[in-house]
Amino acid sequence: MSKVTFAEISPSEFFYRNRDLAGFSNPARALYSATRELVENSLDACETFGILPDIYVRLTPAEMNGSDADPRDYVLKVQDNGPGIEVKHVPNAFGRVFFGSKYTLRQSRGMFGMGGKMALLYGQITTNKPVTIKTSSDGSTAYTFQMMIDIQQNTPIVVRKEASPADGFTGIMVETTLMGDYGRASGKIQEYLKQTAMVTPYANITFVDAYGNLVVFHRNTTSFPNPPRDTLPHPYGMDVEGFRRLLRQTKETTLFNFMRKKNFHRVGDRIARKFLEYVQMDASMDPKSLGNEETVKLVNALHKFQEFLQPDADCLSPLGEEILKAGILKEIDPEFIAIAVRPPSAYSGFPFIVEMALAYGGKNLAAGIKVFRFANRIPLLYDETSDVVWKVVNEEIDWRRYRIPQNAPIAVISHVCSTRIPYKTVGKEYLADRPELEREAKNALRENLRRLTGYLYRKGTMEAVKRKKNIYAKYLPLIARFSTELSQAKRPPRYRKLLDEGEAVEGQRTLEEYR
What we know:
This protein is an alpha+beta fold. The chain contains 13 helices and 14 strands.
């Protein structure tokens, strides 16, 4: 009989063994994922502190046995102009999995606090070279670290640390060496940066690729979305474990104060009192005295009580019509744009907002429908057909009903912002088909399609007016000449002006009908 061996592994060890879960499945995907994770960390840092981002990204081939063939080692450098990180936090922030600033209930690109660390971990396990991190918070002194990760212990190893003059530099610079396949990853990386520029038109992004080509995405607006704020858990999203944690942390001595103060989102005195009456529990009892059965009973009641207010969206940071339109004009420049921002909604107690744009025509759109998906300003480039927005666009909407020409050049741009994006995987590539999310996406797309239908009707009518004018322009001079010869009167000198006035009147009538 074989002996069963039990063992414990650290979080770093787990992701070392299962790096496919985080999007580091092969050299091409890993190069894309590492670039994406470090860029998103930089954007989050800048936006949280209200700084217009300036992001610099460079990929440089490293020598690898003199071979230029992929896969090979690349040096990835990402630098921002953000607030930097306090020196005391740098080793753990980059060298300890599940240590970071992402573990509050707040809208952010990152959810798990491990993407950047996975990029560094992947670099270490493929090239065994330390990562270089440079940070400055005050623009006076910069601190440079060379680090590795003790994978078995999930702890940082500081190889070298030094201070130097910052010369006005503030922010973070991360430089890591990793095995990649830029030949296969180049398309995804460039598309990711282009779509990032679309959804963050207030950012300057400079990219130097592995072949030395320079691509710059300039900001075209200084309008900035309001920074997201931390919020409290909503009762509808609470589970037994979360409730127990609140009980352990609370300093309140009565259940009434525990329910109404700094623990739950939008629960005031009146609602707290009515809830405790509903669950038939003593408002004056000590919350720490709750037993297991009472705790489970109370949490079940939280989900059934109908008078809790829905989550508000004050904690969210949607793009808004102005910023979304600026990004679309900058990167797509279509003939027509319609934008719908849906009212705040919620799933499982988590607030979310759906913003959706519909772009038509222009030189940059090919025939057919292209879907751009964003979640908390992250471009989602993989697993498109598994996403709820793709399902809405391709399965839930009858495009013939809106009289859209077949193979019309259309782009659907969707952005979902939430304190908890319903991703289906750790890799953050597609959204689950939550009924609430599907409903809002469908309503937003229908609203935009109605506006596009009106635009196409007006455009068709104007083209008909133009064709009519061409006919008039062809025959009216002949009619004028024949009439003059028959009547022996002077030829009407202003018939061309009559044509222009007729077109203006017809066009104005069409415009009024469209409005």
